[in-house]
Amino acid sequence: MNAQTGCRDVPVLKERGQREVFCGLTGIIWLHRKMQDAFFLVVGSRTCAHLLQAAAGVMIFAEPRFGTAILEEKDLAGLADANLELDREVARLLSRRPDIKQLFLVGSCPSEVIKLDLHRAAERLSAIHAPHVRVYNYSGSGIETTFTQGEDACLAAMVPSLPATTARELLLVGALPDVVEDQALALLAAMGIAPVRCLPARRSSDLPAVGPNTVFALVQPFLGDTHAALERRGARHIPAPFPFGADGTTAWLRAVAQEFGVPQATFDAVIAAPKARAEKAIAAHATTLAGKSVFFFPDSQLEIPLARFLTRECGMTAIEVGTPYLHTGLVGPDLDLLAQGPVISEGQDVDLQLTRLRAARPDLTVCGLGLANPLEAEGLTTKWAIELVFTPVHFYEQAGDLAGLFSRPLRRRALLRKEAAE
Ligand code: SF4
Fold this sequence. Notes:
Elements: E1 13-16, H1 28-34, E2 38-44, H2 46-56, E3 66-70, H3 79-96, E4 102-107, H4 111-115, H5 118-129, E5 134-139, H6 149-158, E6 169-173, H7 178-190, E7 196-199, E8 214-218, H8 224-232, E9 236-237, H9 245-259, H10 264-289, E10 293-296, H11 303-314, E11 317-323, H12 328-337, E12 343-348, H13 350-360, E13 364-367, H14 369-377, E14 382-384, H15 386-390, H16 399-421
Parallel strand pairs: 1-12, 2-3, 2-4, 4-5, 6-7, 6-8, 8-9, 10-11, 10-13, 11-12, 13-14
Helix pairs in contact: 6-8, 9-10, 10-16, 11-12
The protein binds iron/sulfur cluster.
């Protein structure tokens, strides 16, 4: 499909009203699992601590790798005291936990925190605790970030201090579960593409170097700031559709393979078996999904690649594809592959969007947790957007699970209707 038939150049409905999304602190839940010697210290309020606790669910760690330094008004005689308190808290943490090599100070919404200069605090603490621990800072505040932007802010904060290199290297950017990352690395290795580095790395000792001969491929579409930070270091982005579904994965791999001059026969031989497995797994769910309509609320920034997957590989029709931000430099190749027809919307005015949704009554609505329950009560079938980031969904071996995330609520709704009719 080319730009004339795809959605890259269609008019975008831009809305700037009230929005219903989680804040960027949520990313800590998947980032702390990925980065095994990192600790995320949220500088925030009890609300932030509760959010993390709730999002982490029932996971109990002997040695958790995230926590909250609670700063409330009663704690503050002044900013100097807050900084001293933060320094003491960090010193206590690091003396207790010699396994921590990277410490992220994560900013939040409360006004006491906004007044603190966490960037300077991170510099000060890095100087105190170097070379054993590197201290970074980023904001996960709900005022500034939606939930996947937390990962973007975290990775972008790391880029300026990555070592420099002139080596020609491929960098995969975006947090994937280790097992999925290993699958991607195995496919690239089978094509003869090496060395391949990852950001984030599993351990600080594996952090990639970056420079003018680095080429990078994103595995998540919400990494706009990280993309810009890498380009500032001279690295070059390989634009590609995102690796969701059999076709998306093939297109992503093809873009990387072309950059590295992989022969067509090698490429075809490497992808043949996993691609066939993915197509078969998707087909099992496509019987439920084909002919159904889907409406995306703006939430995870995965919406455009997922709409491309659901319409092209599962036979669904997209009515509206909402995204918090539309970064054509990142999702342009997916927009090219998305047939014209759906409303493409950026930002949110939740009441107006709910009106459009109720008029359209789609078969499936992809939205945040806060909207899902009331919409289910109205008889609409929903999928929680947050599950899309907590579940392994990338590359060939997960393509069936990805389709299953959308077919399951439709099957459940059909069963409930059947039971009610009996
Ligand atoms: S929205 Fe703000 S106050 Fe609420 S949990 Fe997120 S950072 Fe904390």
